[in-house]
From TrEMBL:
Enzyme class: lyase
Gene3D superfamilies assigned to the protein according to its UniProt record, in alphabetical order: Alanine racemase, Lyase, Ornithine Decarboxylase, Chain A, domain 1
Family: Belongs to the Orn/Lys/Arg decarboxylase class-II family. LysA subfamily.
Quaternary structure annotation from Swiss-Prot or TrEMBL: Homodimer.
Protein name per its UniProtKB record: Diaminopimelate decarboxylase
NCBIfam families found in the cross-reference section: lysA
Function: Specifically catalyzes the decarboxylation of meso-diaminopimelate (meso-DAP) to L-lysine.
Species, as recorded: Flavobacterium litorale
PANTHER family: DIAMINOPIMELATE DECARBOXYLASE (PTHR43727), GROUP IV DECARBOXYLASE (PTHR43727:SF2)
Keyword DNA repair: no
Cofactor(s) in the UniProt record: pyridoxal 5'-phosphate
Amino acid sequence: METNQLLALTEQFGNPIYVYDATKIQSQYHKLEQAFKNVNSLRINYAVKALSNLSVLKLLKQLGSGLDTVSIQEVQLGLMAGYSPEKIIYTPNGVSMEEIEEVAALGVQINIDNLSILEQFGTKHPKTPVCIRINPHVMAGGNSNISVGHIDSKFGISIHQMPHLLRIVSNTGMRINGIHMHTGSDILDIEVFLYAAEILFNTAIQFKNLEFIDFGSGFKVPYKADDIETDIEELGKKLTKRFNNFCTEYGSELTLCFEPGKFLVSQSGYFLAKVNVVKQTTSTVFAGVDSGFNHLIRPMLYNSYHHIQNISNPNGKERFYSVVGYICETDTFAGNRRITEITEGDILCFYNAGAYCFSMASNYNSRTRPAEVLWYENQGYLIRESETFDDIVRKQIVMDFDVLNAAV
Ligand SMILES: Cc1ncc(COP(=O)(O)O)c(C=O)c1O
């Protein structure tokens, strides 16, 4: 999107604000589809956790996407957006048996990642087909908080537990119709991905009734100019060849599934916040914005990089700034960052704000969460109003101590 379009949206809808460019979501979806065009049956299940706004889910539905969900609430959002239950996979971690049963009763594909629940579920519901999340013990992912396939990870059933897993399947008579892995986010090296895929193929061959193999996600997108990204075309070529050979060996045409979050929505998003104060200290110049990690937690949570541009003064002289938020703790979006000269009142644009930004936002410091806008066919549509103080207090029940004390 053009910076003048973004500025105009802040004038129309206020700030801070998240803006998502539908065209980018569409082009990323088509790019992935195109990379795997030689797979007979491909299914892309968008990872709802990345950005769960109903209008975004509906946009992805139009493209033919399914959904990857991790909570019953995400399943409900998917159904509300018009997805049929068969287009939804549910991959929870550490949730109760009751929630899993509730989701299964809706007709959604269940993906189980531990032996205890697998045994309980298989015993009670042997006829419900189940996918199994395998932990291939491959160290993939951009940093330790988003690497989930390694030996110490809480996710998935270890490949070393295969004998136990197979015993549960045979004892309960349950049907395993899918095998899944998700090794982590921000994977740079496709060879690591392909290595983990090999482990998954070796596991898959041991099950006779598979309908699909789900390779999860973790594709890295660029965060700045010249940044490395997952080579999706190369992965498409290599994995397609291997997958098609596997289907021949397996003796049936399986569906290849992915569940990307970041790949589909990260680059579509812009977060726009106004500079409240420019503060020169003895060591640095701070630009303090009308926001904080309550709205964009990724830099504080994973040290993630968001390119920041002063869209009110895009051609100004560059200076170095620390861009900080208003939360009363360390709240740094970027340190020592070269940005065109900032004046109080300017609008800063944070790039790659589509994935894990609004969906991780909170009301910390009793702040409201901003509005969301979808830029669709050259027009901005408000897809979530900004919260008000009423939203902060809505669920609170205020005790009346005067009445209580008088009753004693
Ligand atoms: C099981 C599962 N699938 C898919 C994703 C999406 O990953 P990404 O946003 O890196 O594509 C995640 C992210 O945490 C996940 O846990």
